[in-house]
Structures are given as structure tokens and as C-alpha cells.
Specification:
231 residues; mainly alpha
Length: 231
């Protein structure tokens, strides 16, 4: 019975019910099963929300992103990218991944998906595709570009975060190994993480170049077929 809250969440999410309502009902149900009174349940829920309120801060960025897109963010990105004639989607995303790796390796966080990728990197990548291939870029390719933009941030962050020896992941590894009787210096862990960061960037760069070639081949073929059709 103590796990009834988990069951409620699973069923609620499976039925696509209101997320907040499901979580609150699950919390109240768990509290009642634990023989807590209503005041104690509400106090516990309130304390949990306040202590984790930072996780809700990303919601503040949503209206900003919406306003930017409403007033021509993507159009401005296209205009900017057109000035860099040799800049492709793959080169742009590879450049961002490199910047992300360098900054996170120094312990500086750019903001991630809500603050950086969605309002800036993704529109610029889409703009690069439109500038290079025109408005004929298909929606499914735009979706791939958005996915690649998100992946650029993930790869830059995940594979380079341990380069910074004060990173929480490095400290966790060091403390875990020390608890197992294998004391290790955080600088040693950071040194080992450097080759991982470099290899992951090289592989991601290659994948981006392959993606560029696929787009180029696809839209060159479409353009040639259009020309033959006009003739």
C-alpha cells in the first residue's frame, strides 16, 4: 500500500491525465497511507516544492522564446547566416559543440536547451539550411536539424563536464573510489576525461559532415529534377 503513489502516477501518465493533478493526488494518497493528517501532507508537499523551485525556473524562458519567434527570430537568423556563405548546418553545430565543450570544461555553463539551444542555436541552424537550400527544405529535415541542435548541446555538455575537476561528477567519482579504498585525485580524473571529450567531438564533427552531405545531395537532386521538369 505504501507504493500506491507510484501506481497512481503510472496510471495517470498512461491515461495522459493532468500532470500536476496526478502528482498531487499521488502525494496525498501516499501521505494518507502513511497515516499523516492533511496538514502534515500539505506541509510536506509545500516544503518539497519550495526546496525544488529552481527546477521550475526554465518556465520563465518560455514566454521570452515565444516573443522572440513571434517577432522574427528565425528571419533574423536567416539574414545573419546568409552573410556567411560557406557556413552549413553541420559546421555551425560543430562550432557550437566545440564552444560548449570548452566552456563546460572551464566550469562555465551557457544555459542548456531552454536558454540557449531553443532560442538561438536551433533557429541559426535552421536559418543555415534555408540560406543554403532555400525555402524548399522539408519539415522532416527541419525536425532533424532541431534534433541535431539539441544533440550538439548534449554531446558538448556530457562528454566534457568531467574535464573541470571541481565538477560534481568528478567529485562523486573521487568520493566513490575513495570509499572503495582507491583514493584518486580529481586532477587525474579530469586528465582522463580530456581524451573522451576530444574523441566525442571528432565523431560528432564527422556525423555533422555526413548530415551536411546528405542534405546537399538530396536538395541538389530535387533541384536537378525541377530543372529537367521545366525543360
Amino acid at each position: 500500500m505504501e507504493l500506491i503513489g507510484i501506481l497512481i502516477i503510472i496510471v495517470g501518465f498512461a491515461l495522459k491525465l493532468d500532470t500536476i493533478a496526478v502528482v498531487v493526488v499521488a502525494g496525498i494518497s501516499t501521505g494518507l497511507v502513511a497515516k499523516m493528517n492533511l496538514v502534515e501532507i500539505l506541509d510536506t508537499l509545500g516544503s518539497a516544492f519550495v526546496s525544488n523551485r529552481v527546477t521550475c525556473l526554465f518556465l520563465i524562458t518560455l514566454p521570452v522564446i515565444g516573443l522572440c519567434e513571434r517577432y522574427g527570430l528565425k528571419a533574423k537568423a536567416v539574414m545573419l547566416i546568409k552573410k556567411a556563405t560557406n557556413l552549413s548546418v553541420g559546421k555551425l553545430l560543430s562550432g557550437y559543440t566545440l564552444i560548449r565543450k570548452v566552456t563546460i570544461g572551464m566550469g562555465v555553463t551557457l544555459g542548456g536547451h531552454p536558454q540557449f539551444v531553443r532560442p538561438l542555436v536551433s533557429p541559426m541552424a535552421e536559418g543555415a539550411a534555408i540560406a543554403k537550400y532555400g525555402e524548399k527544405v522539408e519539415e522532416k529535415d527541419m525536425e532533424k536539424i532541431r534534433a541535431y541542435s539539441a544533440a550538439s548541446d548534449n554531446i558538448g555538455n556530457f562528454f566534457a563536464q568531467n574535464v573541470f575537476m571541481a565538477n560534481s561528477g568528478v567529485l562523486l567519482i573521487a568520493s566513490t573510489l575513495e570509499g572503495l579504498g582507491m583514493p584518486v585525485d580529481t586532477l587525474q580524473i579530469a586528465k582522463v576525461a580530456i581524451p573522451v571529450a576530444i574523441i566525442s567531438f571528432v565523431l560528432w564533427f564527422i556525423q555533422n559532415m555526413i548530415f551536411d552531405k546528405r542534405l546537399k545531395r538530396k536538395y541538389a537532386t530535387i533541384e536537378n529534377e525541377k530543372i529537367r521538369g521545366d525543360q
